[in-house]
Structure formats: structure tokens, C-alpha cells
Amino acid sequence: MIPHFFTLLTRPDQAWVDIRRDEEKNSSNYLVHLLLWALLPAICMFIGTRYVGWSLVEDERIWLDTRSAFQLSALIYITIVAGTFIMGFFLRWMSRTFDARPTFNQCVGFIAYVITPFFFAGLGALYPSRWTAILVLVVAGIYSTYLLFVGLPKFMRIDNRNTFLYGACTWGVGLLVLVNLKVPMILFWTLALDPTYERNTPQNQSYGFEENRPQEEPGGLDNERRFNERPNE
Questions:
Q1: Which pTM was predicted?
Q2: 137: which residues sit within 8 A by CB, 6+ positions away?
Q3: Residue 30 exposure: Cα atoms within 13 Å on the Cβ side
Q4: Phi and psi of 195, rounded to 5°?
Q5: What is the DSSP letter of 197?
Q6: Distance CA 113, CA 120 (A)
Q7: What is the Cα–Cα distance from 124 to 137, expressed in whole angstroms?
Q8: How far is CA 17 from CA 100, 117, 141, 155, 181, in A?
Q9: How many CA atoms, within 13 angstroms, populate the side-chain half-sphere of residue 56?
């Protein structure tokens, strides 16, 4: 599985030929690739959210506790694997339109290899940051799209004239599957599992924390007191 990972990133043309040959020998050959490499973003997410943390305002750092970080990482892993199988189903369903006859396992395997750049992009989760996430996801999305259009005619053995339409349909369905899996997953983690956050909120050196600061009286009463305390002129 390791050679396919690196050849997909360096020589995708040759990689798809080798992958198709391996899948014909063993239609479940993709499982090791999927189940092992899907661990990479999950593990990186755990390390990043538990030990590195992220910042929303200056001088403040936020972490997840061990339980919440593990739950988030497990949900991400499950979502990746489930999403790959769902996309394999839709890919096979659409293949009839383009005169392709792949098996379900071959379709799932094809998707597992197409999303390989997203596995590698999971390294970005080691340092949770908005701009880091945007950068690595955009780069991974571009290269996955390239793998999709290069791999369709070689792996599915379809006419080059159908490649663009088949690839565009696959890309669109993939976006819908991503949204419909990720959003419920995040909502479930946030609302049902009740994650616990840890913060290093900076302390005001003059008054301590916010609750220890002296509270001003309502404006009307305070102004009236000052007026009554003025010396008679």
C-alpha cells in the first residue's frame, strides 16, 4: 500500500495502472490503504486539539480535554471511512450511464485512492489554525481532482470523451456527501457529546479576573451621589 501512496503523488499515470491490476487480483486490496491512512488525520487531530491547541484572540489558547479530543478524532475517522463507502456506491451507480462496469469494491477502492491527498493533508491538523486548514484543504482538493480525472479513463476504462462529465458528476456528489456527513458529525459531537474546553485566559494584573473587578453603580444613582457630595457654594 505504501508504494501506491507515493506513486499517486509523484507518478499518477503509472499508479492507476498498477492499482487497477492489483484490484483485479484482489478486489478488497484497497482496505488496508483506506483503514490505515484514514488514521493519519484522526491522530493528527487528536494531537493538535489536545496538546497544541488553537487561538481565537490574542494571548489566549484553547485545548480540548482528552475525552473530547478522542471523541472528535474517532468521529472523523468513522466519517472518512463511511464517506468513502457511500461515494463508492454512488460511483458505481453512475457508472452505468458511462458504459463502465466496475464492481462495488473497485469503486470504493477508486475513491479511497482519489482522496489520498486529503490523508496527507491531515498533517495540517497538528497545528490547528484557520489559515493552515484552508491552505492544506485547497491544495489537497486540487490534487484529488487531478487524480480523479487522470484515473477515471485508466481505472474505469471508459472513453476519454466521457471523462469530464463522469468526473464532474463524481466531484459534485462528493461535495454533497461531504457536507451531509461532516455537518451532522460536528453537530452530534457539539450537542450530544458535550466537549470540554480548557483555556489559559490572560489575567488583568490590576483587578484579577473579571468577576473581581469593582462594579460601577447605575449611572443615575452614582451621578446623584456625586451631586449631593459637592460643597455648598
A1: 0.81
A2: 118, 121, 124
A3: 26
A4: -65, 150
A5: E
A6: 12
A7: 9
A8: 16, 18, 22, 7, 31
A9: 6
Q: CB count, 10 Å around CB of 18?
A: 14
Place of cell 487528536: 46
Q: What is the dihedral of CA 184, 187, 191, 196, to 10 degrees?
A: 130
Decide: 5 and 33 in contact? Cβ < 8 Å: yes
Amino acid code (one letter) for 211: E
Q: Where are the alpha helices (DSSP H) in 96-154?
A: 104-114, 116-121, 130-151
- Packed helices 104-114 and 12-25: angle between N→C axes, nearest 10 degrees: 150
Beta strand 197-199 with 62-64: parallel, antiparallel or unpaired?
A: antiparallel
pLDDT in single tens digits along all 233 residues of the chain: 566 777 888 888 888 988 888 888 887 888 888 999 999 999 999 999 999 988 877 777 889 999 999 999 999 999 999 999 999 999 999 988 887 888 899 999 999 999 999 999 999 999 888 888 899 999 999 999 999 999 999 888 888 888 899 999 999 999 999 999 999 999 999 999 989 988 886 554 444 444 444 444 444 445 555 445 555 54
Measured CA to CA in angstroms, residue 68 lies from 53, 65, 109, 127, 170 at distances of 13, 6, 31, 17, 33
- What's the one-letter identity of residue 167? G
Ramachandran angles phi, psi of 171, nearest 5°: -65, -45
107 neighbors 19 (Cβ within 8 angstroms): no
Cα–Cα dist 62/49, whole Å: 8
- Separation CA 166–CA 152 (nearest Å): 8
Instruction: At 31, list the grid cell.
Output: 482496505
Q: Which amino acid is at 61?
A: R
